[in-house]
Amino acid sequence: MLPLVNVGRKHLDEYATIVSHGLMDEVRRLAEPLAGLKVLHVSATAFGGGVAEINYTLVPLMADAGLEVEWRIIRGAEEFFEVTKAIHNGLQGDPRSLTEAEVETYRRYNAQNAADLDPDAYDIVIVHDPQPAALIESFPNRRAKWIWRGHIDFSTPNPDVFDALLPSIRKYDAAVFHRREYVPNADLPLVAIWPPAIDPLMPKNMALAAEDASYIVDQFGIDVERPLITQVSRFDPWKDPLGVIDAYRLVTKRFPEVQLALVGSMAHDDPEGWDRTVEHAAGDPDIYILSNLNNVGAVEVNAFQVTSAAVLQKSIREGFGLTVTEALWKVRPTVGGRVGGIVAQIVDGETGWLVDSVEQCADAVIEILRDPEAARVRARIGKEHVRRHFLTPRLLRDWLVLFTMLTGGDTGGSEIVTA
Questions:
Q1: Helix H or strand E segment including 166
Q2: What is the pLDDT of residues 95-131, one digit of tens each?
Q3: For residue 146, what is the enclosing H or E element?
């Protein structure tokens, strides 16, 4: 069998004081007739990136709702993950197409992983993102309902790369995208559209006192008496860490005391970017480039966000950008690229700042540093926006509605956006 991820336990009741009673009642009503439904999640990795973070909460909450749910990950050698990284970039617009050998490598590893999977043991199989999308090709006579969940920005994909995946995606019973703009103009099955969400009770997002956060950040050599700006992301060109460094350098012309932290997780299927970022920092002692390899975990990320005068997510492509959600939940002034799902979270001038360039990013940070009280007003509005739209119980509710639809049940008036 494919490796099983141990997700621990979570309880829906713990969220009752955070989200509305109406939402919690709806979740319980939808879950009751689905009790015992066997659900499998399949993804490329169990750490690094938004998919893994979501599943560590979503999977145990599905279990607490009465479903029998597992999360398994595929296996692959370096050659496979090099191809899937090229696919990832191509789906977000990189002009490089795949070679025939790369397509063969992708399909071969998917077939090998499929040999370790018994789909008839499940009622629902959820496949996350491009890496395992071709698993379905090995099961023409499947009994379960298969759902493909895309977590990246598909608005302007390289057509050659997308065409390599499209035959597989068309075989699914449903496909889920973050935004309507990501749905390709293609003959797809039932399409659902909903944003991802964060877990407010995870160590990364739970309440952390300012003095505790400062103590943690101080351990990394950062001067907590000076302003800090932070971006939490993979060291991925689409997250534009080099542009963040350039923006920081412009900010230092007005606020020379400012510091920058680039905090990322090094996932095993995403080996690029670190060296390029370190090189661009050029030894600046006030730029801190940190990852899980430096013992930066969930609590440390929380501390960096809480301590920051401004949190950035200067993406040039972005599926959704849950780090924006995290920062707003912590009432931090937040600056994001005007791309992808960031625009669903940041209402420019109301909940944060949207920017299109290095210069605009620097100007937004300078505005925050000049008037921190006005910046906090936006951040407080942003926290309420997150509470209403981007917390995990709402995400669970959406999945339960889709499961009910696919299994022929009655949603009782609960709806999801479809296209």
A1: helix 159-169
A2: 999 999 999 999 999 999 999 999 999 999 999 999 9
A3: strand 145-149
Question: Is the Cβ–Cβ distance between 234 and 323 less than 8 Å?
Answer: no
Average pLDDT of the chain is 95
Give the Cα separation of 274 and 370 in Å (integer): 32
Nearest to 326 by CA among 6, 33, 57: 57
Handedness of CA 350, 351, 353, 355 (dihedral sign): negative
Angle between helices 358-370 and 241-254 (to 10 degrees): 50
Q: In whole angstroms, give the CA distance from residue 414 to residue 398.
A: 9
For residues 260 and 334, give the distance between their C-alpha atoms in angstroms, rounded to a whole number: 14
Q: At how many degrees (to 10) do helices 392-406 and 50-64 cross? A: 70
Strand 228-232 to strand 310-313: parallel, antiparallel, or no bridges (unpaired)?
A: parallel
Cβ-based burial of 397 (10 A; exposed 0-12, middle 13-18, buried ≥19): buried
pLDDT digits (tens, 9 = 90+) for 205-263: 999 999 999 999 999 999 999 999 999 998 988 899 999 999 999 999 999 999 999 99
Dihedral, 343, 345, 347, 353 alpha carbons, nearest 10: -80
The first and second tokens of residue 22, run together, are 């109406």
Rounded CA gap, 305 and 331, in Å?
Answer: 9
Q: Is 177 helix (H, G, I), strand (E, B) or coil?
A: strand
In terms of DSSP H, where are the helices of 330-391? 342-345, 358-370, 372-389
Q: What is the pLDDT of residues 397-416, one digit of tens each?
A: 999 999 999 999 999 999 99
Residue ranges, the chain, pLDDT below 50? 268-269
What is the rounded (10 degree) CA torsion for 148, 150, 154, 159?
A: -40
